[in-house]
Amino acid sequence: MISVLAQERLLGAALGSILTGVVIFEQRKSVYKSISDTQSQPREPIFGRNTRLEFAHVWNKCVDKTFGPIIESLSSRGW
To answer: What is the pLDDT along the chain (79 residues), one digit of tens a residue?
Structure first.
């Protein structure tokens, strides 16, 4: 038969596991709720449309200036 001490330890382990499970469940529920609340709100763009278009244009010009000579060299070699 199981001794009283072993029964107390088994009961403590079972209650501790149940309590830990409840705490983890509540924490996850809280995290998922905060994520869904955040995602349901409409996101405002950081920059306006014109600023994004200007940035894209400047970016493309920089890429063209940086990689243009390399692309021309490879193109002249038949790559």
So the answer is: 678 888 899 999 999 999 999 999 999 999 999 888 777 766 667 778 888 899 999 999 999 999 999 888 888 887 7
Examine the domain organization and report whether 3 and 29 are in the same domain.
yes
Radius of gyration, CA atoms only, the chain: 31
54 plus 26 within the same structural domain: no
Alpha carbon distance 6, 8 (integer Å): 5
Q: Determine the structural domain holding residue 27 and report its residue range.
A: 1-43
Buried (b) or exposed (e) across 19-57, using 16+ Cβ within 10 A?
eeeeeeeeeeeeeeeeeeeeeeeeeeeeeeeeeeeeeee
Q: What is the pTM of this model?
A: 0.45
